[in-house]
Amino acid sequence: MSSFKGSVVFPSLSGDGYVEDRNVLMSKLFEMFLASDESQSNYTQSQSLKGILNSETVDEYSRREDIRKALVILYEPYYDTVEVSVNIETTENNMSVYDVSIDTVYNGEDYALNQNISNDYYTNINKFDYMLGNLEN
Questions:
Q1: Per CATH, the architecture of 10-126 is what?
Q2: Among 43, 57, 39, which Cα is nearest to 11's?
Q3: Whether this model's pTM surpasses 0.85
Q4: Listed range (52-56, 65-69, 73-77, 87-91) with the worst mean pLDDT
Q5: Based on CB atoms within 10 Å of each CB, which residue in 64, 71, 121, 130 is the most buried?
Q6: pLDDT number for residue 129
Q7: Model confidence at 75: pLDDT above 60
Q8: Across the chain, what does the average pLDDT equal?
Q9: In b/e form, how buried is each residue of 30-49, taking b as 16+ CB within 10 angstroms?
Q10: Which residues of 64-79 are buried (b: 16+ CB within 10 A; e: fewer)?
């Protein structure tokens, strides 16, 4: 572990510049996880959501663990402690919904983020990529 754990600032690619506010950072990191292309997963040890969903993992519980591990790796440099839980619910029309909870601590302060990700998200990403010519049909 680095002695700099938790003291790293996040270099935002938006007009926000470097993000030091840990509340804002919770959302920015999750946005990055959702929006990153699968090839951008090569930049860090953490995979993007798109990379995980496009992987050959077919078991939902393995996919859930891949999401959990990726988020822990993504958040660890910015917080003193990171706990991530991912639960899966299947809707009546067989759509998987991942309920993601991220709990962190930085300098004794607690920060939390709760989000839902559905198969619909994955389907819409692939439709958008297809329209841009990034995917073959």
A1: Roll (3.10)
A2: 43
A3: no
A4: 52-56
A5: 71
A6: 43
A7: yes
A8: 77
A9: bebbeebebeebeeeebbbb
A10: bebbbbbbeebbbbbb
Per-residue pLDDT reduced to its tens digit, 81-125: 999 999 988 878 777 788 999 999 999 999 999 998 876 655 544
User: Which residue matches tokens 């930085």?
Assistant: 106
Phi, psi of 95 (to 5 degrees): -95, 135
- From the list 14, 42, 39, 40, the residue with the least C-alpha distance to 28 is 14
Tokens at residue 110, please?
A: 């607690």
List, as one string, the DSSP characters of 19-31. Answer: E--HHHHHHHHHH
For tokens 């822990």, what's the residue? 72
Dig out the tokens for 119 from the structure: 């198969």
Tokens at 97, concatenated = 């919904």
6 dihedral zone (left: phi>0; alpha: psi -120 to 50; beta): left
